[in-house]
Amino acid sequence: MNLTDISPAIALTPLDGRYRSQTAPLVEYLSEPALNRERMRVEVEWMIMLANGYAGNDWQPIVPGVKPLTEQEQAFLRSIPEEFGAEGIARHAAHEAVTHHDVKAVEYYIDDQLDAAADVLGGPTQLTDLKTLVHFACTSEDINNLSTARCVKNAIEHVWLPGIDAIVDLLAARADEYRDMPLLSLTHGQPATPTTLGKELAVYVYRLRRQIAHVRTQQYLGKINGATGTFGAHLAAVDGVDWVEVSRVFVEDRMGLTWNPLTTQIESHDWQAELYGTISHANRIMHNLCVDTWMYISRGVFAQVPVKGATGSSTMPHKVNPIRFENAEANLEISCSLLDTLAATLVESRWQRDLTDSTTQRNIGSALGYSVLALNNLLGGLKSIHPNTQVMERELDENWEVLGEPIQTAMRASELAGRPGMERPYEKVKELMRGHQIAQEDVERFIDSLDFDSETAARLKTLTPATYVGVAAQLVDFDR
């Protein structure tokens, strides 16, 4: 049997197959039917505004000959996208099979609903005669840019942001919990100045919150100004209307977007490049977190909680693999590659219009889908690990040479204060500690061999690798 003959159809990508349950929330906003539903919302809201006007024109019809729609008629129009389901999807597809144009198919779908308006409303209605008001003075991109912006905005606000917020909230809670837990730092993979586990997690909280703040303040731009952005058709049809103001009010008040007054046929998509660049940046920060955590697990700093019944290896039964972090890494990389392509492609268009953006934008769902999948994996991975304090304490106790930094720095201060015998502090500590296994006794003996004042000597002698963490615990508070 050919797999292509199996019904229901087998998914080609893992987002709609293996990982469907995790990426399904994005279907509500970034699938093809979701886009068509949003197109219908734009079309019917445009009809309502043309018929009923807005506050700035005293709620008078914008197009002559059209009577204001009743509350019942407006509700009927708004029900068209709200009731767009399996049957509607099939009907739209039938129109598109003939028109070979998805937006025109939306227009014809709305026409079908207007034909049924009298029956639904239980009596005569002007909606039956308003097919010519559907898509009035619009080019397809007037509908598409607004629909896409609303789809992306809703996907970010309802799916992506809650996903990354959950990760940051967990990291922040862990950072606070582990703020005083000493950890041996490794710079260049070598033992270095100790820190605390909480402070290191707080670094990621701070980094991610900056990117989240950018996303939350992101503008989503929209336009409705005709085939090349000149309002030419609008003025040719109805002169004497401030179509520029009509456009602004519709985009801002009806669509909830930021109005773009200057465009070609397409809205320039700069906001999309900005947004995808920020999300890609956040992805890369999380990728860094995955790699760090993976290495902490390998080092034994984090212990994993085994999942009952799970298999770590087909041949090595003892293994508990950090697969959630590895899966997150891979999905973040795929997401970044798609987001980077979107950001680069969407800001360019040949003269007033080409269709490269239309093809590219159909992959927004995939780009965000891989990011959402990574968020789920990363959150699950973070929930399944806990610090192994025995390993952390052993690492610190085995690396007393990390106290070379505070000793030589104290020697510098003493030399500057005029204490004798403190010259060449770095070189003296280097000779003692570099490449040697140092114990507590060696450190204390070296301190005693120097002419520190009693207070400085006592302060240095109280230091251990576990206590030499500076103000790491206080720094956690800056992740807020």
From TrEMBL:
<dbReference type="Pfam" id="PF00206">
    <property type="entry name" value="Lyase_1"/>
</dbReference>
<feature type="domain" description="Adenylosuccinate lyase PurB C-terminal">
    <location>
        <begin position="349"/>
        <end position="469"/>
    </location>
</feature>
<keyword id="KW-0658">Purine biosynthesis</keyword>
<dbReference type="InterPro" id="IPR008948">
    <property type="entry name" value="L-Aspartase-like"/>
</dbReference>
<dbReference type="InterPro" id="IPR020557">
    <property type="entry name" value="Fumarate_lyase_CS"/>
</dbReference>
<protein>
    <submittedName>
        <fullName>Adenylosuccinate lyase</fullName>
        <ecNumber>4.3.2.2</ecNumber>
    </submittedName>
</protein>
<comment type="function">
    <text>Catalyzes two reactions in de novo purine nucleotide biosynthesis. Catalyzes the breakdown of 5-aminoimidazole- (N-succinylocarboxamide) ribotide (SAICAR or 2-[5-amino-1-(5-phospho-beta-D-ribosyl)imidazole-4-carboxamido]succinate) to 5-aminoimidazole-4-carboxamide ribotide (AICAR or 5-amino-1-(5-phospho-beta-D-ribosyl)imidazole-4-carboxamide) and fumarate, and of adenylosuccinate (ADS or N(6)-(1,2-dicarboxyethyl)-AMP) to adenosine monophosphate (AMP) and fumarate.</text>
</comment>
<keyword id="KW-0456">Lyase</keyword>
<dbReference type="InterPro" id="IPR000362">
    <property type="entry name" value="Fumarate_lyase_fam"/>
</dbReference>
<dbReference type="InterPro" id="IPR013539">
    <property type="entry name" value="PurB_C"/>
</dbReference>
<dbReference type="InterPro" id="IPR047136">
    <property type="entry name" value="PurB_bact"/>
</dbReference>
<feature type="domain" description="Fumarate lyase N-terminal">
    <location>
        <begin position="17"/>
        <end position="328"/>
    </location>
</feature>
<dbReference type="GO" id="GO:0004018">
    <property type="term" value="F:N6-(1,2-dicarboxyethyl)AMP AMP-lyase (fumarate-forming) activity"/>
</dbReference>
<dbReference type="InterPro" id="IPR024083">
    <property type="entry name" value="Fumarase/histidase_N"/>
</dbReference>
<comment type="pathway">
    <text>Purine metabolism; AMP biosynthesis via de novo pathway; AMP from IMP: step 2/2.</text>
</comment>
<dbReference type="Pfam" id="PF08328">
    <property type="entry name" value="ASL_C"/>
</dbReference>
<dbReference type="InterPro" id="IPR022761">
    <property type="entry name" value="Fumarate_lyase_N"/>
</dbReference>
<dbReference type="GO" id="GO:0006188">
    <property type="term" value="P:IMP biosynthetic process"/>
</dbReference>
<comment type="pathway">
    <text>Purine metabolism; IMP biosynthesis via de novo pathway; 5-amino-1-(5-phospho-D-ribosyl)imidazole-4-carboxamide from 5-amino-1-(5-phospho-D-ribosyl)imidazole-4-carboxylate: step 2/2.</text>
</comment>
